[in-house]
Write a structure and sequence with these properties.
Layout: H1 4-13, H2 23-37, H3 42-53, E1 55-57, E2 60-62, E3 67-70, E4 73-76, H4 80-92, E5 98-100, E6 105-106, H5 107-110, H6 117-121, H7 123-141, H8 144-152, H9 156-170
């Protein structure tokens, strides 16, 4: 029998996404885990996933892991399997530039970092890639706000609009790492 104290320590070492209670919480939990494992503050990744896939659901503004942006149109699927099937079918029909998952990683520009569409939809893999990309952008631009704008677009006007939304959302996020009761669902009026 394992002593309770050791079990408690082991639970603390598990990635936060293990404790997500619903699919809507997977993006938040993956963001916190990726932030803990990398150099990006958790609030930056939490804000980024909300900007990318946030929607009002049940009175709360939440990210959604089974999201696709196909040629400028957003799709929120009920399941990962439905999202993967949609992307697979779209790809077979000739689509190449589309965004996938919690952090809307673009397949055309970043798909080579993943082994499959299914992996791109994996919340933790998606968040981990977003964290690495944001870190490189932060090193280039010197601020998380600038990095968020560049994450979206290198066109100044598009980046500025995105940055303004990112800045509004990040201002609503309290210290997520200090919270011990997962899941973290951010309420915002967006």
């Amino acid at each position: 029998m394992i002593p309770a104290r050791i079990v408690g320590v082991l639970l603390l070492l598990l990635p936060s996404f293990v404790f997500a209670k619903s699919e809507a919480e997977l993006c938040n939990a993956a963001a916190i885990t990726a932030a803990t494992n990398g150099a990006v503050p958790a609030d930056v990744l939490l804000a980024l996933t909300l900007v990318e896939t946030g929607r009002n659901e049940g009175g709360a503004f939440q990210p959604w892991p089974w999201t696709v942006n196909m040629e400028g149109k957003g799709y929120w699927f009920d399941t990962r399997a439905e999202a993967v099937a949609f992307v697979t079918q779209s790809y077979a029909a000739g689509a190449r530039s589309f965004d996938i998952g919690c952090f809307q990683i673009n397949h055309r520009w970043h798909g080579q970092a993943f082994t499959s569409f299914d992996q791109m939809f994996d919340p933790l893999d998606n968040a981990t890639y977003a964290a690495k990309f944001m870190t490189s952008l932060f090193q280039e631009g010197g601020s998380w706000s600038w990095a968020a704008g560049a994450y979206h677009s290198r066109t100044d006007s598009l980046a500025a609009k995105y940055r303004a939304r990112f800045d509004r959302i990040i201002a609503t996020i309290t210290d997520p790492v200090a919270e011990v009761d997962l899941p973290i669902i951010i309420a915002a009026n967006e």
